[in-house]
Fold this sequence. Notes:
Main location: nucleus
CATH class: Mainly Beta
Domain SUN: 1-127
CATH architecture: Sandwich
GO molecular function, one term: protein-membrane adaptor activity
CATH superfamily: Galactose-binding domain-like
Subcellular location: Nucleus inner membrane
Shape: elongated
CATH topology: Jelly Rolls
Largest sheet: 6 strands, antiparallel
Protein name: SPAG4 protein
Amino acid sequence: VFPGNCWAFKGHQGQAVIRLPARVYLTAITVQHITKDASPSGTIISAPKDIAVFVSLLGTSVDADREEETLLGMFTYNVEKDPVQTFPLKNMLLPRAFSHVKLLVKSNWGNPWYTCIYRVKVHGKMENQKASSEGQD
């Protein structure tokens, strides 16, 4: 994670849809930004602040033109805490595996020109692993 080596988008709002390599029962998401010490300006106002995570039912509905999404969590990335922050998701409402995750950044910490995300990790159990581990202790 190096300054400027990030996924940047214009303004203080943006989104990314992440296609997972397999269908996953989601449990948490981790967001990472650089530290103030690593920043050439000494600030990290380009860090995301308010973030919402959705699962996309893209490709699973009969009506392919209609994209359905379900909110799995809203959280605040805190620039005063560790640069790597993990947030639990509420997948128990939809106990199924998903192939797409949407990260919606609603605000940043004050940069009017751009917002940067350095790393996103999606946590969970792959669908075929859950099936193979059922019935085992």
